[in-house]
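seq:
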Amino acid sequence: MGARETRAFTVYDWDNNERIVAIENKPIEAIVVNIVSGDETAYIYYEDGTEIYVDSSMHRLESYLDETYLIKKNEVEKWINFEFRTEAPEGKEEMESFKSAERAAYFTKKRYERLFK
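struct:
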């Protein structure tokens, strides 16, 4: 049996440390992202019915659920390839501290705006 083709992407912990995870390169149906004590975790659901769990932290001392959001099939690539800001927004002196929070804010804001249209 040959090696399976993989792809890699990055998840972030509360201190913006990167963890590169390798997953099978097959169609993804959805990703459920949880921010746990500032750390990104994700359940990746493949179209073939299989699933995997990834976690940005290997040493979490406490687990508080900060945010949960769903990435649907049509947004998977955008989430995986999300481009973080490189400088603070106008009117702010410094960047928000958590990359996990920045990515969550982008995708959850998008959903909340849909509710009010």
